């Protein structure tokens, strides 16, 4: 008998019900759109890449490719290291006859070993800077001393200039960088004052576009008169090219100066490529770097001058990268503020009149929205802000040259004439005049008048470098107590040489003698074998965290 077909239920519904469902669906979709809008765009934005109009595009793309390759190599190396560790663990599990070493002994020995190794490798980085700076001066035929146009006299180092003069037949040329941050009248006055002693070039390095994250803050606070192009490049090229013709052979040009005057930026502007590292922070260049400009001229970059601690607090604050560590931020910023015109500072930072520096930092913190927990103004943060703006490349201030010209004590008339021989000074004057016309500087009323402290004393010889301050020593002891494995990254090469010579084996034996005076022979032998195997495989292995 055939089974009767069941009648399908009808999908028809009343219009009231259908419209109600459609309304609910529309409300649901609207709600989803609102939530998505609050969360932001789900679809990732496409990387626009480097625009064709950007300078140094090829160099940026090349660096991005190299960075990508380095990351891939690092991942592969980490993967291989993990595989090796797993193989070692499997071997230990499969061979139970081999007793594992005493964990506590290994940990204690690792700490002693790293501590002794750090002591062997520790050196004052300032001594290394002195050596590198001497190498730059010895290798150079012409030395460019870069000065910040806002305080040219404060950027001159008499000790270093004297060392350059005594080192042989070398020429010294002054370069007035950041010349767009001071009024034109002041720039002309300083040029007329400095060229009486040494050949002087007006220069304005192009803005760095490599480290966008570091330079963003500076661009936001930058004054509207800052231009993008390099100024003074042709004048410097002609000066060096003319001297090379009279010199008769390939020319080595060294670039020296105090921190944050724009030494590396000048080299990048001459090369028209991002060769040297530049940034807002002081003292980025730590080693000697040779950059060929063309077949006949090679330029050498090096570390900055080391500031003597006998200078005034204002000079230390402006010229030393460690001034915030040596002095307190409020003291360093107060020293700068004491030599600036108070009325112009009030107009520049748009704060009310103040009686002392502490009141100014309080007003500046309130103005810039720098607050601590509880709503109190962050005075230390405001002091650091003033210090960073004053030592950076955004704030326009200027100093008047001395009213009467007198020859510097370390120079005499014969030295001045010798330094000017071989240079076409008439052509240099024409190029400087053209550069001053091309620069669009700030108005005199919108800049801050600053009282210069005169020439800044520097340290040339390693023996003259003072010992570390007690505060710095205490800080280093605390860091060593927390982690014995943290050593200075700048001394890795020194550590490797010491390891190759086998100088670290004596601390190994001493550590074992101290740690195991009464231990059993079995524990000592197993732990010793384990650690020596680790040392042979990788000298930089972290013992203290192996079995933690």
From TrEMBL:
Record's keyword annotation contains S-adenosyl-L-methionine: no
Keywords: Acetylation, Coiled coil, GTP-binding, Isopeptide bond, Nucleotide-binding, Nucleus, Phosphoprotein, Ubl conjugation
CP-type G domain sequence ranges: 130-308
Role: May be required to maintain the proliferative capacity of stem cells. Stabilizes MDM2 by preventing its ubiquitination, and hence proteasomal degradation.
UniProt biased composition (Acidic residues): 480-503
Cross-referenced Gene3D superfamilies: 1.10.1580.10, P-loop containing nucleotide triphosphate hydrolases (3.40.50.300)
Annotated Basic and acidic residues bias: 74-93, 460-479
PANTHER family found in the cross-reference section: GTP-BINDING PROTEIN-RELATED, GUANINE NUCLEOTIDE-BINDING PROTEIN-LIKE 3
Region called Disordered, residue ranges: 1-57, 74-98, 459-525
InterPro entries to which the protein is assigned, alphabetical: G_CP_dom (IPR030378), Gnl3_N_dom (IPR014813), GTP-bd (IPR006073), GTP-bd_ortho_bundle_sf (IPR023179), P-loop_NTPase (IPR027417), TRAFAC_YlqF/YawG_RiboMat (IPR050755)
Annotated localization: Nucleus, Nucleolus
Record's compositionally biased regions (Basic residues): 1-45
Name of the protein in question: Guanine nucleotide-binding protein-like 3
This protein's GO CC annotations: nucleolus
Single annotated GO MF: GTP binding
Source organism of the structure: Rousettus aegyptiacus (Egyptian fruit bat)
């Amino acid at each position: 008998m055939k089974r009767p077909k069941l009648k399908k239920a009808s999908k028809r519904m009343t219009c009231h019900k259908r419209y109600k469902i459609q309304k609910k669906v529309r409300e649901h979709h609207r709600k989803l759109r609102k939530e998505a809008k609050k969360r932001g765009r789900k679809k990732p934005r496409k990387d626009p890449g480097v625009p064709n109009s950007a300078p140094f595009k090829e160099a940026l793309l090349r660096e991005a490719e190299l960075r990508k390759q380095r990351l891939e190599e690092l991942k592969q190396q980490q993967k291989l290291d993990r595989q090796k560790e797993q193989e070692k663990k499997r071997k230990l599990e499969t061979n139970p006859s081999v007793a594992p070493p005493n964990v506590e002994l290994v940990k204690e020995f690792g700490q002693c070993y790293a501590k002794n190794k750090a002591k062997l490798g520790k050196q004052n980085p300032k001594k290394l800077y002195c050596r590198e700076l001497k190498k730059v001066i010895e290798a150079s035929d012409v030395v460019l001393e870069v000065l910040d146009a806002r305080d040219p006299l404060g950027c001159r180092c008499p000790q270093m200039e004297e060392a350059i003069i005594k080192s042989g037949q070398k020429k010294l040329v002054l370069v007035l960088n950041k010349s767009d941050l001071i009024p034109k009248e002041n720039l002309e006055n300083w040029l007329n004052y400095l060229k009486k002693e040494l050949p002087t070039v007006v220069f304005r390095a192009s803005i760095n576009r490599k480290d966008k994250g570091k330079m963003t803050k500076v661009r936001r606070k930058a004054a509207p008169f800052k231009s993008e192009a390099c100024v003074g490049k042709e004048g410097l090229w002609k000066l060096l090219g003319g001297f090379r013709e009279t010199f008769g052979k390939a020319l080595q040009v060294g670039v020296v100066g105090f921190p944050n005057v724009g030494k590396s930026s000048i080299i990048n502007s001459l090369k028209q490529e991002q060769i040297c590292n530049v940034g807002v922070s002081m003292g980025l260049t730590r080693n000697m770097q040779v950059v060929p400009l063309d077949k006949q001229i090679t330029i050498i970059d090096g570390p900055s001058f080391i500031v003597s601690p006998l200078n005034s607090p204002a000079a230390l604050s402006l010229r030393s990268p460690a001034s915030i560590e040596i002095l307190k931020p409020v003291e360093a910023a107060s020293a700068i503020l004491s030599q600036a015109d108070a009325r112009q500072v009030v107009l520049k930072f748009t704060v009310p009149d103040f009686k002392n520096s502490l009141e100014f930092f309080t007003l500046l913190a309130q103005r810039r929205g720098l607050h601590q927990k509880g709503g109190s103004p962050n005075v230390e943060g405001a002091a650091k802000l003033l210090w960073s703006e004053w030592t950076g490349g955004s704030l326009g201030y200027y100093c008047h040259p001395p009213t009467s010209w007198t020859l510097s004590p370390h120079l005499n008339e014969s030295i001045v004439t010798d330094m000017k021989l071989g240079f076409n000074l008439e052509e240099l004057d024409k190029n400087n005049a053209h550069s001053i016309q091309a620069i669009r500087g700030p108005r005199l009323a919108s800049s801050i008048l600053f009282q210069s402290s005169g020439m800044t004393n520097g340290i040339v010889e390693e023996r003259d470098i003072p010992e570390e301050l007690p505060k710095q020593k205490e800080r280093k002891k605390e860091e060593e107590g927390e982690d014995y494995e943290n050593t200075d990254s700048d001394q890795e090469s020194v550590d490797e040489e010491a390891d190759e010579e086998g100088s670290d084996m004596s601390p190994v034996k001493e550590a074992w003698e101290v740690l195991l005076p009464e231990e059993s022979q079995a524990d000592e032998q197993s732990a010793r074998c384990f650690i020596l195997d680790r040392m042979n495989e990788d000298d930089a292995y972290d013992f203290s965290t192996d079995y933690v």
